[in-house]
Automatic annotation (TrEMBL):
InterPro entries: Acyl-CoA_deSatase_haem/ster-bd, Acyl-CoA_DS, Cyt_B5-like_heme/steroid-bd, Cyt_B5-like_heme/steroid_sf, Cyt_B5_heme-BS, FA_desaturase_dom, FADS-1_CS. Pfam families: Cyt-b5, FA_desaturase. PANTHER family: ACYL-COA DESATURASE, DESATURASE 1, ISOFORM A-RELATED. Its EC number is 1.14.19.1. Keywords: Electron transport, Fatty acid biosynthesis, Fatty acid metabolism, Heme, Iron, Lipid biosynthesis, Lipid metabolism, Membrane, Metal-binding, Oxidoreductase, Transmembrane, Transmembrane helix, Transport. This is Acyl-CoA desaturase. Stearoyl-CoA desaturase that utilizes O(2) and electrons from reduced cytochrome b5 to introduce the first double bond into saturated fatty acyl-CoA substrates. Belongs to the fatty acid desaturase type 1 family. Its cofactor is Fe(2+). It catalyses: octadecanoyl-CoA + 2 Fe(II)-[cytochrome b5] + O2 + 2 H(+) = (9Z)-octadecenoyl-CoA + 2 Fe(III)-[cytochrome b5] + 2 H2O. It is found in: Membrane. It is a multi-pass membrane protein. GO terms for cellular component: endoplasmic reticulum membrane.
Amino acid sequence: MPTSGTTIELIDDQFPKDDSAAGGVVDEVDLTEANILATGLNKKAPRIVNGFGSLMGSKEMVSVEFDKKGNEKKSNLDRLLEKDNQEKEAAKTRTHISEQPWTLNNWHQHLNWLNMVLVCGMPIVGWYFALSGKVPLHLNVFLFSVFYYAVGGVSITAGYHRLWSHRSYSAHWPLRLFYAVFGCASVEGSAKWWGHSHRIHHRYTDTLRDPYDARRGLWYSHMGWMLLKPNPKYKARADITDMTDDWTIRFQHRHYILLMLLTAFVIPTVICGYFFNDYMGGLIYAGFIRVFVIQQATFCINSMAHYIGTQPFDDRRTPRDNWITAIVTFGEGYHNFHHEFPTDYRNAIKWYQYDPTKVIIYLTSLVGLAYDLKRFSQNAIEEALIQQEQKKINQKKAKINWGPVLTDLPMWDKQTFLAKSKENKGLVIISGIVHDVSGYISEHPGGETLIKTALGKDATKAFSGGVYRHSNAAQNVLADMRVAVIKESKNSAIRMASKRGEVYETGKFF
Ligand SMILES: [Zn+2]
Ligand SMILES: [Zn+2]
């Protein structure tokens, strides 16, 4: 049967001779052990007190802290197992709110009210003052808001995302401190929390454990995941000890509330008040409205970048490349590339694609603040592109009628062919395949005489250049006339078929 796989030739004897020692046993990776490493549970996770890092997220979903009281002697793994067992027991007796239908009595229990205030309440206040005309927008405040939007935004994309979550480059402490402080201006939680849920997103993309699971719909992956209480059943963990080893991350997490209030609201208010004499404009536009816009833009990465756009590198999962999302997110919109090559400091690889975050990382490296910028080799990128192109081509191939499938045809030896040729004068062998050209003789573009000389014979050489080198189209017309395969020449039949683009799996053939 033709399949969408690649033709596999019989290649056993193409390998070098096996020279390995006999009887060697190779251990397989222990999955439990490897998963413990992936979640960082083998290490002592520092407890960084604040808790407000769960801001905009669901602590149940991403919590990596452990209760110290009474548990000091237990290993992280023991604590985890104990906690998981307790949760399982508790789940038996009650149904989590996320599994219950919405009713007039319980709707408020479905919601994460802190996040409702931070991503819905604050914008309502901002837009009320802006749209009612109570606080008019002045040009200076507008320009400062745009500039400050970029400062907070790039701290998320170049800092939270590409530096900390993916370690796609390294940075010296002044730059890390800058991103840690001004990342707070975007009100997206602490880098520790953000990086942890982001690593889970990359590890479990499009599964129930993916915090922003795109399969649950545009609304859920945009804001729903944050506004609704998540099901603790699908809680996931990822190792972030490299992040918590960074003092700037610990400093930011400890003082998150203070830093957030200061950078998101106090600083823009004071700057607009001092320089433009417009304190209220600073608070409303450079504060509330700016935070709303940057939050929505960032949420688009989880929603739009998993919905609209192209998938040039791999289409097995939802991430997509899209220039519209790139524009609002400082270049984070080339999300199909990003999910394939997450530790590449670039998101866009073509010169005309918009990725200012990449440019900023490069510029900071020129002045010595950033270093060790990571890139995947162009060859690895081309490989992925071609594999995806090949997949598309194979899908198209599967829809095409390639003529009778070789494996469905009867197998004749040469004697049978000669016998059958006496009954049917229109039979001819080309590349080990018997064709019945009776109905085609008068239509043959090379004339009746030529085709008639081939009847009852093997015309492989004449067909493929000895007399006339037939085109692809001619070969395709011929393929429709297949009636049998010659046993002694089945290998040339396979070669002929795979040359045309037909795909057969070795092993299933004959
Ligand atoms: Zn994603
Ligand atoms: Zn990422």
